[in-house]
């Protein structure tokens, strides 16, 4: 399930808005006042030392910010027609008041939510004042404004990753947070290019609780063209800002159990999955299959090599190589291979492997090929394929060189 990675409502979340400030969710593009007490310096400084960053972060934490990241603001992270003077960006997260989570959507929850935006803005202006006082010029992206796509920005800064609920998920706060940003004249921000939270969308694929929790069909699961699933955010359906709805946050395991618990569960799930997958890579299984379906490979010349790959495991290949008129089966780690070693590759969904291995007459294999469930890729020219005896092989499978069903 691919994630659409769109924000779950205005302000704290990313807004890929087409035109101006209005996001269409009912919040109306309300503006919070600029509460700065310091003006930008006339001649701003551009360099800060390590000691300064330490002091700055200590001050930010003392104000209540939970995580701080640094990144470059790129045009794709700005809402259309918006502009910020500096691209050097400090991204901040702060905990969302628990009262918002505990209060059902409605006037009261919305008021609490508005207060949370107001508080985030006020504290961000205080931090900006601190920077200005130290000689740096700043500009603020308020958590409620739609100038900057804040969730993707925070993801870029390595603070967390956007989940299926369209919100940033962080180790410290799950999705129960507000985000703000300060663009600043400091050119040597300690920018982090890595993101250790990129596993989150994979967990979301198996979870989907936020989709079920959303009462307004603002999160919709859709089939992708490749048979997968993706969650789409329907902004106009979302009552996050207009009524303080947080159902997609409270239903999320990151908020209920915490990041470390979910990561631990994810690692265990993956280890089990790997174990299950490894069973499907046993050479003796594929040897049996090759022997039972030897007719299929008749006519291939020595040296002809076919690879079988599983969609869910890109790390390993099953190689079937004709040598001394036999078909030898080897399992190879992809990282061991420096160049393409196969002439053709069949890409199979892991869940179909059992059916294929249990079939002695190649019928299932052919059925799946004709229905497009198994994809074929060619790595050598048509002439080379003909020379290696693939013409008859492909015909037997209902494929043709350069034909519609074959990618050669
Ligand atoms: S649960 Fe509420 S806040 Fe979340 S997407 Fe649905 S309507 Fe929006
Ligand atoms: S509820 Fe599940 S699917 Fe939704 S964001 Fe949280 S972990 Fe991801």
UniProtKB/TrEMBL annotation:
Coiled-coil positions: none
PANTHER family, alphabetized: IRON-SULFUR CLUSTER-BINDING PROTEIN, IRON-SULFUR CLUSTER-BINDING PROTEIN-RELATED
> Can you provide one Gene Ontology molecular function annotated for this UniProt record?
oxidoreductase activity
All residue ranges annotated as the 4Fe-4S ferredoxin-type domain in the record: 195-224
Organism, scientific name = Methanobacterium congolense
Under the heading InterPro entries, the entry gives:
4Fe4S_Fe-S-bd, 4Fe4S_Fe_S_CS
Quote the protein name from its UniProt record: 4Fe-4S ferredoxin
- Start and end residues of each stretch annotated as Disordered: 1-21
């Amino acid at each position: 399930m691919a994630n659409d990675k769109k924000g779950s409502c205005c302000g704290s979340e990313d807004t890929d808005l087409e035109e101006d400030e209005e996001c269409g969710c009912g919040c109306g593009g309300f503006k919070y006042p600029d509460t700065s007490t310091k003006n930008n310096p006339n001649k701003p400084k551009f360099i800060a030392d390590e000691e300064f960053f330490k002091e700055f972060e200590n001050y930010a934490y003392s104000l209540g910010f939970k995580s701080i990241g640094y990144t470059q603001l790129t045009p794709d992270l700005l809402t259309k027609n918006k502009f910020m003077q500096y691209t050097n960006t400090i991204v901040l997260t702060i905990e969302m008041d628990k009262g918002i989570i505990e209060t059902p959507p409605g006037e009261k929850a919305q008021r609490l939510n508005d207060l949370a935006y107001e508080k985030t803005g006020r504290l961000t202006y205080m931090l900006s004042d601190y920077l200005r006082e130290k000689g740096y010029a700043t500009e603020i992206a308020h958590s409620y404004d739609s100038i900057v796509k804040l969730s993707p920005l925070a993801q870029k800064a390595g603070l967390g990753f956007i989940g299926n609920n369209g919100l940033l998920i962080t180790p410290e706060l799950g999705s129960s947070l507000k985000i703000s940003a300060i663009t600043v004249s400091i050119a040597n921000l300690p920018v982090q290019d890595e993101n250790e939270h990129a596993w989150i969308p994979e967990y979301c694929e198996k979870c989907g609780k936020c989709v079920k929790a959303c009462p307004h069909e603002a999160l919709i699961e859709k089939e992708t063209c490749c048979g997968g699933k993706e969650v789409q955010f329907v902004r106009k359906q979302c009552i996050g800002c207009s009524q303080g709805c947080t159902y997609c946050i409270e239903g999320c395991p990151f908020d209920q159990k915490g990041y470390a618990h979910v990561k631990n569960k994810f690692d265990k799930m993956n280890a089990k999955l790997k174990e299950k997958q490894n069973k499907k890579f046993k050479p003796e299984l594929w040897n049996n299959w090759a022997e039972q379906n030897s007719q299929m490979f008749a006519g291939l010349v020595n040296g002809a090599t076919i690879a079988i790959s599983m969609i869910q495991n890109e790390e390993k290949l099953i190689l079937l190589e004709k040598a001394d008129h036999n078909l030898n089966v080897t399992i190879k780690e992809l990282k061991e291979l420096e160049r393409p070693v196969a002439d053709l590759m069949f890409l199979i969904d892991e869940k179909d492997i059992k059916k294929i291995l249990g079939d002695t007459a190649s019928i299932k294999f052919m059925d799946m090929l004709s229905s497009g469930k198994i994809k074929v890729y060619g790595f050598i020219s048509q002439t080379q394929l003909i020379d290696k005896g693939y013409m008859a092989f492909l015909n037997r499978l209902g494929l043709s060189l350069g034909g519609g069903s074959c990618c050669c």
